[in-house]
Amino acid sequence: MTLRTLPALYISHGGGPWPWLDGPMKDAHEQLAVSLRQIPLLVGATPKAVLMISAHWEEPDFALMTHAHPPMLYDYYGFPESTYRVKYPAPGAPLLAEHVQGLLQGEGFKVQLDSARGFDHGAFVPMAVAYPEANIPVLQLSLKQGFDPKEHIAAGRALAPLRDEGVLIIGSGFSYHNLRALGPEVKGPSAAFDAWLNRTLLNDDHGQRIAALAAWDAAPAARQAHPREEHLLPLMVVVGAAENDPATCVYHQEDFYGSACVSSFMLGSN
């Protein structure tokens, strides 16, 4: 059977362990939850595996987890004790990790294998909403310290063949990530950056799209939206992996926590 090319996704994953909470925090994420639950329909076919690039893992060089049954990494603070017991028991993908390592090394990247790393919340939170059965193998790829957008775009290019092999590439971050500044004063800056991001990604000139993303910090309100860009860098990998595909905005909210403008995108189609 011939596998078709899967789309690639950049998703805003929300704050902390929100799916396991009640009250205002969960309510603030309802639109995001709806969009995440739609991912299986957007993708169409059930992926053979998910390659997840999470904003919550960065290493001196790119790194891949190789644990066959990844543990949980509760990398959030100050939440109810019950949220430190949640499980997302998806299998790992150690053989895929070796394949991905080869693809990246073939383009000159140094790649480490990590046998102890578990799922961080940038991975298990959106996966628990999108694929609650936890029956699809998940492989996490770290960001590379230095946060060079061109390096992450190039890494995505190296990973593009995976899309023809049934692997769903997901970049998990947050299109606006200055959460300490949430409030009425961020409406303007977050809207300005989000409008730029939508214009850039939906641009039919994919060469211009790449050039703009490589110089993302020149965008309107860029550093107000991302004082530190780790939540934007997963997008660079996704765009590199789907460089010539059109983009669609699959989630857009102008009042996240009553103030921030946030989005998620799909590149390619089902």
Features of the shown structure:
two-stranded parallel sheet, alpha/beta, 8 strands, six-stranded mixed β-sheet, 270 residues, Protocatechuate 4,5-dioxygenase, Chain B
Description:
The chain has 270 residues and is an alpha/beta fold. It has a single domain, classed as LigB-like (Protocatechuate 4,5-dioxygenase, Chain B, 3-Layer(aba) Sandwich), CATH 3.40.830.10. Helix content is 33%, strand content 21%. The chain is built from 10 helices and 8 strands. It is globular.
C-alpha Rg, in Å?
A: 17 Å
Which architecture name does CATH use? 3-Layer(aba) Sandwich
Oligomer: single chain
CA(first)-CA(last) distance: 17 Å
Order of strands, main sheet, comes to 5-2-6-1-8-7
Biggest β-sheet, characterized?
6 strands, mixed
Counted up, domains total 1
Output the CATH class name. Answer: Alpha Beta
CATH superfamily: LigB-like
Instruction: Report the β-strand fraction as a percent range.
Output: 15-25%
Helix-and-strand structural type: alpha/beta
Q: Roughly how much helix do the residues carry, as a percent range?
A: 25-40%
Summarize the structure.
The chain is an alpha/beta fold. It has a single domain (8-267), classed as LigB-like (Protocatechuate 4,5-dioxygenase, Chain B, 3-Layer(aba) Sandwich). The chain is built from 10 helices and 8 strands.
Topology, pairings included?
Elements: E1 8-12, H1 24-28, H2 30-37, H3 39-43, E2 49-59, E3 62-65, H4 94-105, E4 111-114, H5 121-130, E5 138-144, H6 149-159, E6 167-173, H7 187-201, H8 206-214, H9 222-225, H10 233-241, E7 247-256, E8 260-267
Parallel strand pairs: 1-6, 2-5, 2-6, 3-4
Antiparallel strand pairs: 1-8, 7-8
Helix pairs in contact: 6-10
